[in-house]
């Protein structure tokens, strides 16, 4: 299968499949505050993510690049990132490391947004040299290393050997000129996985990348002549993954959450569950594919407004104050937390 055809398949199928009701956020409720003692105008969206000060807790997560038709998508995303001060990741850069003619679909992002916070993206199979080249290609401020074992296994042409990944990630982390963050692509992460990354090899930023939005098992099954639908429900929801990460809460760790984030209230809940920043991928892809840039900016403004409504009604002026607010967790997510011994 041609790599650039695969990129286009991913975009098309990601737009046609998602699991938005299964992210776990509807199981999470805030305790309201009828006397919040605050003015909406004093709420601030500025957020610290590890070493980065972000204008907004929302970031545009890794999607695409590598095929000519993806240049326009990345350009639009980069303009949105610049106009609204969102950090942004590009999709896996492996294509451009192997074929220099594919570089423009990535470098456009730095060209449009010369001063923004950008994340490069590569798989754990990359060499140190490839990782450094990916960073340099877009003058990235950090590198995302994606973990996507189930997706690879469901891809007929995908990887089959996942041995030595922890050592490979450690090698990259030790040699790279920028911070390394490790992310899932929508199957979630367990406390055990996070512990290995954080405690064993010293990774300090993790994106739990949970189930509930773009579903790469479904996406790959749509591409297969013989689908394996029994894996469509694989993984942990975004909220379950955040609960898993909370087990490591007192470590030196910045948590990010992505996976089925639909609006500002989901962002607020993710921040309350311990995330420092919240990624959106599929919903933004849908917007840039179907709307003008102005309409996309209005959608981001609406998310920001929703976060500030949540902040005002809960009586907090800064996003870091979400952490530690009392929450009620119900339904399947509560069952999960109880069975896992997480309170
Ligand atoms: C992705 N995602 C992704 N992640 C990654 O680390 N490298 C990649 O190349 C891609 N490619 C990609 C393509 C497309 C079309 C989509 C929609 C997504 C995964 C993405 O960053 C995110 O983790 C998941 O999509 C879950 O977030 P949403 O889509 O539910 O908001």
Automatic annotation (TrEMBL):
The keyword Metal-binding belongs to this UniProt entry's keyword annotation: yes
Residues covered by the FMN-dependent dehydrogenase domain: 165-320
CDD domains listed in its UniProt record: IDI-2_FMN
- Which GO cellular component terms, listed alphabetically, does the Swiss-Prot or TrEMBL entry include? cytoplasm
Q: Where in the cell is it found?
A: Cytoplasm
Under the heading InterPro entries, the entry gives: Aldolase_TIM (IPR013785), FMN-dep_DH (IPR000262), IPdP_isomerase (IPR011179)
Needed co-factor(s): NADPH; Mg(2+); FMN
EC number, as in UniProt:
5.3.3.2
Q: Which residues bind FMN?
A: 62-64, 92, 121, 183, 214, 260-262, 281-282
Enumerate the residues binding substrate.
Answer: 6-7, 151
Reaction equation(s) it catalyzes: isopentenyl diphosphate = dimethylallyl diphosphate
Q: Provide the alphabetized UniProt keywords.
A: Cytoplasm, Flavoprotein, FMN, Isomerase, Isoprene biosynthesis, Magnesium, Metal-binding, NADP
Task: Check the record and name the Gene3D superfamilies matching this protein.
Answer: Aldolase class I
Query: Which SUPFAM superfamilies has this protein been placed in?
Result: FMN-linked oxidoreductases
Which GO terms of type biological process are on file? Answer: isoprenoid biosynthetic process
Query: Where on this chain does Mg(2+) bind?
Result: 152
Q: What binding partners and quaternary form does the record give?
A: Homooctamer. Dimer of tetramers.
Listed NCBIfam families: IPP_isom_2
Q: Which family does it belong to?
A: Belongs to the IPP isomerase type 2 family.
What does the protein in this record do?
Answer: Involved in the biosynthesis of isoprenoids. Catalyzes the 1,3-allylic rearrangement of the homoallylic substrate isopentenyl (IPP) to its allylic isomer, dimethylallyl diphosphate (DMAPP).
What protein is this chain from? Answer: Isopentenyl-diphosphate delta-isomerase
